[in-house]
Amino acid sequence: xxxxxxxxxxxxxxxxxxxxxxxxxxxxxxxxxxxxxxxxxxxxxxxxxxxxxxxxxxxxxxxxxxxxxxxxxxxxxxxxxxxxxxxxxxxxxxxxxxxxxxxxxxxxxxxxxxx
Length: 115
Prior knowledge:
Layout: E1 3-5, H1 6-12, H2 19-27, E2 31-33, E3 36-38, E4 44-46, E5 50-54, E6 59-64, H3 74-78, E7 81-85
Antiparallel strand pairs: 1-4, 2-3, 2-5, 5-6, 6-7
Helix pairs in contact: 1-2
């Protein structure tokens, strides 16, 4: 799979609790792909795209690393993206449950995970 619908990817990556909420995030203009605001939930994302998400509690900048066939748990979702900027939590749906969070951003360099 070389690309996936934006709303589906956001849901699989656990950036939104439901696919409907993921589509609403995009519809309301809270998502940018490579710096350009997107309002079409069906827009395709590709590996290497940089997404900026303006969420209610934080602004995240992530790089798309992979795609999923179905929505899995938090550990599987974390493998779909690399956190470039934002809270040190691995994802907004995990609510700080990631035991790897150490307060050190050195492991979040862009070349570490998916490039």
